[in-house]
Amino acid sequence: MLVAGPLKRMLSPLVNPQVFDFWASHLSPTLSWERPLAKVLARRVEARDTVTLVLRPNRHVGGFAPGQHVSVTVSVNGVRLTRSYSPSWLGRRRMAITVKKMPGGKVSEWLTECCDEGDVLEIGPAFGDMTQPSLERPWLLVAAGSGITPMMSLLRAAATLERPLPPIALLYWARTRADLCFGRELDQLAARLPSLTVQRLLTRESVLLPEEHSGRPDETLLRALVPDLAAQQAYVCGPAGFVATVRTLLEGAVATCQAEAFSLPDVSVVEGQPVQVTLARSGRVLSVPAGAPLLAALEARGERPAHGCRMGICNTCVCGKLAGTTGDLLGGGLSQEPMGAMKLCVSTARTDITLDL
Ligand code: FES
Hints:
By secondary structure, the chain is an alpha/beta fold. It is built from 8 helices and 21 strands.
């Protein structure tokens, strides 16, 4: 950044940030007045349909703790779209995100197939509570699919600590061997960290290697893989169904359990029963399917509410509900009262509602 500190404060009233950014980007693609931008330095294939992007952030990109997420905004066919990913620091002010192409996912498709060296991404503030567990108890990290990315960030950071680490067990589920990420890096970490054990579990591989396991999570398998279950601080990350299953198995069986899903639970849209959503500020009245996640339903009607993670963690999509009954996709309850803070991404309309939008 060319302009910093007191000089920037003095110039602020005189500067239009958009105009500054337009001209500054001709000098350097990540030079900006205040936008947090990161340049793609390298791209490597990590697993099937999965790439790791190595990024150099500008000084406006905030810090993040290992295990947290950031919103990544890209422009796809002229439309700005945001999704969240779990970054890792790589040292020398470089960070990495690993992205799996999701069916129908415009951002993940662009990041995995089109994004290349030199491209610039916008990086939002960090969010999420699944940061470094205490060093006083064993860690149990349970991941499925892309749920490995926050675990990898925790492990990379743990490897830099200059303190003895407690026992760390990583249980990593994937469909097949080709879907496993960070193969060599995990082996190297396990070789460097005597307290780390890595268990790979494959659900759709017909022939297993000696160090691999099969089977979906159940109590017998968990107790076989982690004998001292009761002592563990468990962190769980993966698709909603996987996280719900593992959370049910672990709660009460381990010392602590924290879980994050990177997808929403299956929702039951009430077919044939559209409801009216009134947007109080704009006056628009939209018809959306009852039971559909409100953020997605509003987007399908051309609205662009602010959002980040789309999974109920970052609070970016919070808005007020002024009237009507809404459902909570994560907690499962219904709310009939007007309320000041409702997350659009994990809420549904159950009757006609009015939003403070
Ligand atoms: S978009 Fe993050 S909580 Fe809704």
